[in-house]
Design brief:
The complex is a heterodimer of chains A (about 280) and B (about 260).
Chain A (H helix, E strand, L loop, with lengths): L22 H28 L11 H11 L3 H34 L1 H6 L1 H7 L8 H7 L4 H25 L3 H9 L4 H39 L4 H10 L3 H30 L11
Chain B lengths: L2 H30 L7 H15 L1 H32 L1 H16 L6 H8 L4 H25 L3 H9 L4 H37 L6 H10 L3 H29 L1 H11 L1
Helix pairs in contact in B: 2-3, 2-10, 3-4, 3-6, 3-8, 3-9, 5-6, 6-8, 7-8, 8-9, 8-10, 9-10
Classes of the chains: A mainly alpha (about 280), B mainly alpha (about 260).
Chain lengths: ~280, ~260
Amino acid sequence: MSASGVAPVRDAASGEARPRLAGIGARLVPLLAGALSIAGFLALWQVVSKAGLISEQDLPAMTTTFQELWAMMHTRDFWTAFGQTVRGWALGLGIATALAVPIGILLGSSQFAGRAFRVPIEFLRPIPSAALIPLLFLTLGTTLKSEVFLAAFGAFWPLLVQTIYGVRDVDPVALDTARSFGIGRFERLYRIKLPSAVPYIATGLRISSAVALILAFTAELFMGIPGLGQIMNVAESFGLTKQVYALAVATGVLGLAIYMVFSTLERRALRWHPSQRIGAT
Amino acid sequence: MSKGAYRTAAIAAEIAVPIAILAAWQAWTAQAHDPKFPRLSTILVEFRELWLFSQFELHVVPSLTRIALGFGIALLVGVAIGIPLGLSRWGRILAMPHIEWWRAMPPPALLPISIVLLHSIGNRQKVSFIAFFCLFPILLNTIDGVRGIDPALMETARSYGVGRLERIGRIVFPAALPQIFAGMRTSLSLAVIMMVLTEYFSSTSGVGYVLLISKNTFQLAPMWAAIVLIGVLGYLLNVLLVLIEHRVLAWHRGWRAAAAQ
């Protein structure tokens, strides 16, 4: 399973008894500790910079960075760039989904098609999409098209592979039962194969959503396509370190937001799945 | 169609389709005469001239070294931090917010910062960058693997008086190993991507550097040869890791097969 697969019900390995705090406390204390841990990190950042352990030129203080970010958030340029990055991400992920899911269903349901395209897929999948940037410079140029192509290319593979696995993982008994009841090919696909593949597709979407953002940003940073990556590149080449840090924080927040949305979606899609049912196996 | 004939046809297709794709590429590039898309045969000749092995030491070795060092550091650190975090609930409560933040951060956004912060455009910066982003898949999988251990195993060991360190070495680590390998596979493909990215940005050697320079000087056959090389490297590294995993986890497969019966 994926990194954030199924968590065990209790802390098996440590064998430690969980603190039996009553009701709200049991939830609040860890939350508070987590918040304190983040505050501690921010304080450390501030001290390291202000005390000169790393010069403020190389590492602007935490407060300076957030002030810079706050100031940037009051400019229209920032939000235009932010919107451009989100647009490249969304178009790339959308195109990848529209292609990967149907192709994945096809390759997953037909053994023949699956085998015929196994080798090309195994070879194309590990090609880092970043390697295509020079080629895109020459073909599609420094346009939104390049950014979308790159994001879509990167996001396509995880989704394709997950969809293929999902369709193959369908319960054969359910499929045979449906067949013996005379349920047609199309209805079997729609009512049995697709629902059983949904959790896999959701996992694929979570992975691909992150990949698409990375590649949209990469295209902007290296190709000068308008967006957060491009203004970071400009800030970097003018030596505006504060701005570079503020933009990195902004990009991180965008990444975190996307991750949170898609991992929530994934948990929802998995809710009915046997792997989430406690004591199912 | 009988079952045997179906299988034969499938195997034939498995061989024929890749060949057909390559043939179509060659045929298309041969008649297109587009300098941006050199003939497949031209690319392959260029590939042999560049990478087997005249430029191998100059550019492929530095790239591979960066991947190996970055990945190796990520593996050591990831397992060394991941095991205690998997065992300690409070450790996780304190560490998870940071781990979640950094793993959601798009790596290229830290590329300029890595140069400023480390005062380096050489291996120090490139290896640190690769190691940092390869860390998270390994770390998260190690934590998950440790948490998934059967509590009966741990309690049995404890009641037999097996010490803490020995429990980690003989139970926790081996039990988490399959999942650690899953993280390693993700990290390794990330390492190749990070290698290319760092070599695009302020570099003087490496496959990514060659790729960028050939594009800038409109040497299109070398550019394609570099793209093909990066694909081949990614593929071969993955194959290598799968082979190692197969050997190291042989006991695990045997155990699973026995348990299934």
